[in-house]
Amino acid sequence: xxxxxxxxxxxxxxxxxxxxxxxxxxxxxxxxxxxxxxxxxxxxxxxxxxxxxxxxxxxxxxxxxxxxxxxxxxxxxxxxxxxxxxxxxxxxxxxxxxxxxxxxxxxxxxxxxxxxxxxxxxxxxxxxxxxxxxxxxxxxxxxxxxxxxxxxxxxxxxxxxxxxxxxxxxxxxxxxxxxxxxxxxxxxxxxxxxxxxxxxxxxxxxxxxxxxxxxxxxxxxxxxxxxxxxxxxxxxxxxxxxxxxxxxxxxxxxxxxxxxxxxxxxxxxxxxxxxxxxxxxxxxxxxxxxxxxxxxxxxxxxxxxxxxxxxxxxxxxxxxxxxxxxxxxxxxxxxxxxxxxxxxxxxxxxxxxxxxxxxxxxxxxxxxxxxxxxxxxxxxxxxxxxxxxxxxxxxxxxxxxxxxxxxxxxxxxxxxxxxxxxxxxxxxxxxxxxxxxxxxxxxxxxxxxxxxxxxxxxxxxxxxxxxxxxxxxxxxxxxxxxxxxxxxxxxxxxxxxxxxxxxxxxxxxxxxxxxxxxxxxxxxxxxxxxxxxxxxxxxxxxxxxxxxxxxxxxxxxxxxxxxxxxxxxxxxxxxxxxxxxxxxxxxxxxxxxxxxxxxxxxxxxxxxxxxxxxxxxxxxxxxxxxxxxxxxxxxxxxxxxxxxxxxxxxxxxxxxxxxxxxxxxxxxxxxxxxxxxxxxxxxx
DNA sequence: AGCCACTTCTG
DNA sequence: AGAAGTGGC
Length: 684
Description:
The chain is mainly alpha-helical. The protein has helices at 21-29, 50-70, 82-93, 106-121, 151-159, 193-200, 202-205, 210-222, 228-231, 244-248, 254-270, 274-299, 321-329, 335-347, 352-365, 370-380, 386-397, 412-419, 424-429, 438-441, 449-455, 470-500, 517-521, 557-562, 564-568, 596-604, 648-655, 664-667, 669-683, and strands at residues 7-11, 32-38, 74-78, 97-101, 125-129, 610-613, 637-640. Helix 5 (151-159) crosses helix 12 (274-299) and helix 11 runs antiparallel to helix 12.
């Protein structure tokens, strides 16, 4: 129990005891100090949102309680520099080893590599592990050792690797605690007073914590999984796995998910249950996308802020904050979009299909910069996940070679009848439309006046007219795209000229700044409590898939009403007058950290290069991937090196957005040129 | 066989 | 949105 020769187990987004390789290694090595460091400022722009912090708080409490039954407890530190905190823990406990599990977001990649260097230099033996993925990103590549750039190829490879993902580890039976008497915990504060009321209702629907995650997994696999393929297209079906927040915080191991699901697959295959097999494949596909998001983040660490196919750099975004606000508040006039945005706003949850609907509406119809939307998702989603969300937004923005086509606009009206054929979802979230017959529920603007009247709807008054008509949106998008191609061509020509003259690339990526946080924060939805035709429901009645209630700010009616006057002169806003009070309050934006920071970061972001070195190698020289090597426990780890490596070429091309040797774009000329050619031939 | 309408899929 | 597939006649 005394100091010395103990190990630090640094827990981050791996808040579980089962199948936690870092924890297992620590326990195997003797006494441990389990540490969680809360240093959200390190995340820059991506300071976790309110609901995400709520989850984390409960997940940590849950983990701590369990660790206590095993013989230790969780040491918590409040910090703005994780590495200094680690050094402190080393000093106060005499630890000689550090174990942690890999993360793949760009900030962690850099920080963890530095942690490794700094701690190693202090004589601490550092080892890191794969706990988040079936295969490490550097294990999966094509025949030439290059990373895949399309999902299908990536996932095929994953499913046909010569070795299976590691079998899950059992939880330790007992843990020997190191002496932490001189290493006091800090009290971590995850929510401020104003957030408590909003958070109170979350606990009715969700149970954070690793053992609850395990239960959720079991429930899903023994229940809804078999119906997954049938039900996945319903907007409000309660048959998704609901595992994503658990997975985000590593409360459950994907490897365990994978193995359990595979067992079902074998079972159903033997029974000849085609639907079951199909369901498994689809579900595994969504696990695969999560894997792929880490893979992409690792191989392209800037993919959360830069489009992977560089042409989008020239897209003339409509930088219109009032559009942004209308989208957030669910007042676009398209019922499916609005219902989704109200649900997100009220519950922090959205079915995957609806995420695609609202985000593609955001990009393709409103022409708003995708990173704003991504940031809003980050701030409001319970399962906000940088890698997954970046992949998702790039997918719908048309910047992946295998994503949605750039010029495709999905019509929310048709999608409405596809995902919500009976209008139940819309009626749940847009009570002002509740009395509209299904025939018109997804396109009220076409409904005869008599029908609208009977339903108590006055378009433009208590429910908005479409913010942009779809035909107009199509025209605007075409125009924007042809502008984009022209700029791109001009820029390409300019760069070629400069190259000839021996000048470097001068085109800097100029990201669009986020709206000021303060603006977003004071941006409360005005409530016009029009009693006429209001479907009065108490927030308790609100039904969400698996969520009975919403993130309602119960204490806020006064505030909202108080804002009524100031909102009245917002001429553009067609505010629904009889919307349910419980969804009228926009969630607070996260802490007022410096949003502009990202913008600066973009330009100062280090060039990432990942060389695959031998284990914990001192020499960070670039070395080609160790393809056939299969090592897990700290075996093959990414070594961050400022020098060039085989992976570096992947990014350097992207910096100017126009492929040089082997940039992403260059490897997918068809997706670029095809569209480009088509566009130009139509417009020119 | 050949045509059309309808469904489903597309990360 | 558009391709590809299915099934009816």
